[in-house]
Specification:
5 helices, eight-stranded mixed β-sheet, two-stranded antiparallel ribbon, about 200 residues, alpha+beta
Length: about 200
């Protein structure tokens, strides 16, 4: 799935938290623009947690840490976790800001993308789940902020270099099966439609 800068920023901050504190990798606080606040202040914590865990398989989401931002743009932990995954509720009103669950290597991948590093630095493949679906603008340009958005059904991704020439996989969005997103860039990765 294609992420706009706002989603990359939240994931990058989460990655920074993981990398900054190895004993409790997601305990550091961060700031973010209040515009990202996942929903209105009146939404309950339980509603945000339900939306966040809808992004991952039950065996992942049920043990994941859930994080969001408050009205002041500060990171808040909605629920602690114990399995190395972080889930966020996203904002259903913002294109490219879906609920998602990611592991530590995927957090590093997103942090590198947000920092515009020449290539991702995760040393093992990362996993991202977006089983609640998403909206996106492009399958080829991670910074596209102007194309008309389109809906994407439930999917998951492997955040690791994939080459369409060696894999034989397509590079265009498909409603079923797998394809390579961001093909031809160092951030190419495998995008798999459906549930694992």
């Amino acid at each position: 799935m294609k992420f706009v800068k706002r989603s990359l920023w939240l994931i990058a901050i989460s990655a920074s938290m993981l990398l900054a504190n190895s004993a409790n990798p997601r305990s550091a606080a961060h700031t973010q623009t209040a515009a990202h606040n996942s929903t209105a202040v009146t939404e309950t914590t339980q509603a945000k947690i339900r939306r966040a865990i809808s992004a991952g398989p039950a065996n992942v989401a049920n043990g994941a840490r859930i994080v969001d931002t408050d009205a002041q743009g500060q990171m808040v932990v909605l629920r602690e976790g114990n399995n190395g995954f972080t889930c966020v509720p996203g904002n259903p009103k913002v294109v490219g800001d879906p609920p998602m669950c990611v592991d530590a290597p995927a957090l590093q991948w997103y942090a590198d993308a947000k920092a515009h590093k020449p290539k991702p630095t995760n040393t093992v493949p990362g996993v991202t789940y977006m089983l609640a679906g998403a909206t996106q603008r492009s399958d080829s340009d991670p910074n596209d902020m102007t194309s008309m958005p389109f809906e994407v059904g439930p999917h998951w991704m492997i955040m690791w270099p994939f080459d369409p020439k060696t894999t034989g996989l397509p590079t265009k969005h498909k409603s079923t099966g797998a394809y390579i997103m961001f093909a031809g860039t160092p951030y190419a990765h495998l995008h798999v439609m459906g549930r694992p």
